[in-house]
Amino acid sequence: LAKTTQPISMDSYEGQEVNITCSHNNIATNDYITWYQQFPSQGPRFIIQGYKTKVTNEVASLFIPADRKSSTLSLPRVSLSDTAVYYCLVGDPGYSSASKIIFGSGTRLSIRP
Amino acid sequence: ETGVTQSPTHLIKTRGQQVTLRCSSQSGHNTVSWYQQALGQGPQFIFQYYREEENGRGNFPPRFSGLQFPNYSSELNVNALELDDSALYLCASSLVLAGTTEAFFGQGTRLTVV
Lengths: 113, 114
Hints:
The complex is a heterodimer.
Chain A: E1 9-13, E2 18-23, E3 32-38, E4 45-50, E5 53-56, E6 61-64, E7 70-75, E8 84-91, E9 107-112
Parallel strand pairs in A: 1-9
Antiparallel strand pairs in A: 2-7, 3-4, 3-8, 5-6, 6-7, 8-9
Chain B: E1 5-7, E2 10-13, E3 19-24, E4 31-37, E5 44-50, E6 53-57, E7 64-68, E8 74-78, E9 87-94, E10 104-105, E11 109-113
Parallel strand pairs in B: 2-11
Antiparallel strand pairs in B: 1-3, 3-8, 4-5, 4-9, 5-6, 7-8, 9-10, 9-11
């Protein structure tokens, strides 16, 4: 399973765009990149998943360069409620690989007024 | 609201006791995974069940065991509890399909071992 590296913590202000970068140098051909958000005493919540280039949904964008050795989660116009821990995960979603969702330490994002 | 429910929400046990935690998966999901999350750390993978069979296990001793039932609900059993077993236990259900790893997590069970 590809190991991921992301900043331990980040601070920003309401209304700003926040970009969290994750390194995954050993990503395999079949691996997808997935981001989860977790609030204190709650289970993680799926944010976005991608394989290459750019993926966008109603809450975030995910940018993946051609070599796929890193990825960037972009949160537009953050609010106080975006204060949480964000996890970057890499793995093969197919059953045949029996890969599991393996979490790292995550990035603790703090949003200030 | 993820459709995944865990019970109980909080639990206090004494060292050496046994505990059973329960998880009701989201409707239609055939895979359930269990995680242990210590304070300030990321969730650690315990094991996964797919169609009632264990489908992989993390670095946890045999006293951590599980079951998945025909209705895809699941149990996590921990024997001979130790103080370090105090953590938030998370259950996640998913439907294994090529191209997606979206898992839906429950709110967790906070286990305290004293």
